[in-house]
Design goal:
alpha/beta, Cytidine Deaminase, domain 2, seven-stranded mixed barrel, two-stranded antiparallel sheet, 3 helices, 24% helix, 43% strand
């Protein structure tokens, strides 16, 4: 992973922020997460409009989270159709319970690489949001990633920090 010099911004409605925070607090001390739906103003400016939860068969652990992918994919497709194909998958969020700082793990970077490289995801610049801490004391960190492809070389994952703007 290489950090990019780019900076991004992610707008999230207060209701969506509260859903993420409440889900993380309910699952504490286990990890949890979900997916974000919305639209892009440009490559580094995202507008989140909705969150899709972990799903009924998600796996929650102290140091890992595996969403119920089949359930999420169905909800993503439904949201996409319900919004007239205007709002699409933007990326994911998850919690790091008892962590003091939101730092991307090796697993987080693998997820970003896999999403950015998957044509079926249609998300070459995926969002990753981490909630670190615990109930009543969550800190948030966000990143927008992309693959930098160079001739004859393995693509490099470039991850740029993004500012989060919680809006009414």
């Amino acid at each position: 992973m290489r950090m990019g010099g780019e900076a991004g911004v992610v707008w999230i409605p207060r209701t969506v922020w509260h859903l993420c925070r409440d889900e993380a607090s309910t699952a504490f001390p286990l990890e949890t997460g979900g997916t974000f739906m919305g639209w892009r103003m440009d490559d580094l400016a995202l507008v989140v409009t909705a969150v899709i939860g972990p799903g009924p068969n998600a796996e929650h652990g102290k140091h890992h989270f595996q969403p119920d992918q089949e359930w999420q994919l169905k909800r993503i497709a439904e949201h996409y159709e319900d919004t007239g194909r205007r709002e699409t998958y933007l990326g994911d969020w998850h919690s790091h319970p008892n962590a003091s700082l939101g730092i991307l793990s090796r697993s987080d970077r693998r997820v970003l690489r896999r999403v950015a490289a998957a044509p079926s995801a249609r998300c070459p610049r995926p969002l990753m949001l981490l909630l670190a801490g615990g109930p009543g004391d969550w800190s948030v960190a966000t990143w927008i990633a992309r693959l930098h492809r160079r001739p004859f070389l393995w693509p490099t994952l470039i991850v740029a920090r993004a500012e989060i703007q919680i809006r009414p």
